[in-house]
Amino acid sequence: QAQLQESGGALVQPGESLTLSCVVSGIPFGDKAMSWFRQGPDLAREWIARISYDGSYVAYADSVKSRFTITRDNSQNTLYLEMNNVETTDTAVYYCKTKVDGIDYWGQGTEVTVSS
Questions:
Q1: 12 touches 112 (CB < 8 A)
Q2: 3-state class of 112 per DSSP?
Q3: Where on the phi/psi map is residue 115: left (φ > 0), alpha (ψ -120 to 50), or beta?
Q4: Which among 49, 53, 61, 95 could disulfide-bond with 36, CB atoms 3.0 to 4.6 Å apart, if both were Cys?
């Protein structure tokens, strides 16, 4: 069974940078596309980035395009989200997600708060 563990969330100021990590176990990580989602206060969970199994294809939501970068290290079974020039609207719990045999697996989330 897939297990996903996010980390790296913190309190940061607008304009700063932060990198989130998601360590995956229990599945062949290098075979699976991965995604980041986030859920802000009183908001629905939204998709923000996706990366193919080998990192050759990435896609971003308009809200984070040009500021966030999704990458992966298949040798370390780890997914990353580099967040640059963060804004107060980036305040949310961030989740990594994958799908195995039609079943979605989520981490428990890591909290990012952007505030001056």
A1: yes
A2: strand
A3: beta
A4: 49
Strand, coil or helix: what is 89? helix
The pLDDT of residue 1: 85
Cα gap 22→20, rounded to integer Å = 7
Alpha-carbon span 2 to 18, nearest angstrom = 26
Q: If we measure between CA atoms, which residue out of 84, 98, 93, 86 comes closest to residue 111? A: 93
What DSSP line would sit under 14-73, residue for residue?
A: TT--EEEEEEEESS-GGGS-EEEEEE-TTS--EEEEEE-TTSS-EEE-TTTTTTEEEEEE
Q: What are the tokens at 45?
A: 């969970």
Neighbouring residues of 61: CB distance < 8 A, sequence distance ≥ 6: 46, 47, 48, 49
Residue 95: the pLDDT is 98
For residue 110, what are its two tokens? 């890591």
Token pair 């989330």 in the structure block, residue: 109
Give me 50's structure tokens: 């996706």
